[in-house]
Amino acid sequence: QVQLVESGGGLVQAGGSLKLSCAASGRLLATMGWFRQGPGKEREFVAAAKWSDTYYADAVKGRFTISRDNGKNTVNLQMNSLKPEDTAVYYCAVKGRGSYPPTTESEYDYWGQGTQVTVSS
Q: Do the beta carbons of residue 91 and residue 38 sit within 8 Å?
């Protein structure tokens, strides 16, 4: 069993930055990722990291950076140049074996509880 706890969300002005962190307890899994769900929207893929390989959704490419610390079993999401449309609850997720990059919810095995990110205009 793996438990995930996100932190680092908050309120920021457009153009600002935030860093989200996710700490995983239990065994180390191959892929760690981030999803988000905006108001009235479906949950969508943001970024994934399989060991040192990373993959991003087009909407965040060039602005967000995912990184992981395998020694600490954590994954971070550095978000720069934030836009109001980035407002969402951000979820950390992990998966073991399988295809890469995993961009759909069903591909992930464990989920965090989410952390709110609000970007004001």
A: no
Residue bearing tokens 């004001």:
120
53-109 pLDDT, tens digit per residue, is 999 999 999 999 999 998 899 999 999 999 999 999 999 999 987 888 999 999 999
Q: Which helix (H) or strand (E) is 30 found in, with range?
A: none
83: nearest Cα among 7, 33, 18: 18
> Residue 32 above 90 pLDDT?
yes
CB atoms near residue 80 (< 10 Å)? 14
Q: How many CB atoms lie within 10 A of CB 94?
A: 26
Strand order in the sheet with 18-25: 3-7, 18-25, 74-79, 64-69
Tell me if 105 sits within 8 A of 54, measured CB to CB: no
The backbone torsions φ and ψ at residue 11, rounded to the nearest 5 degrees and listed phi first, read -105, 135
Q: What are phi and psi of 108, to 5 degrees?
A: -95, 150
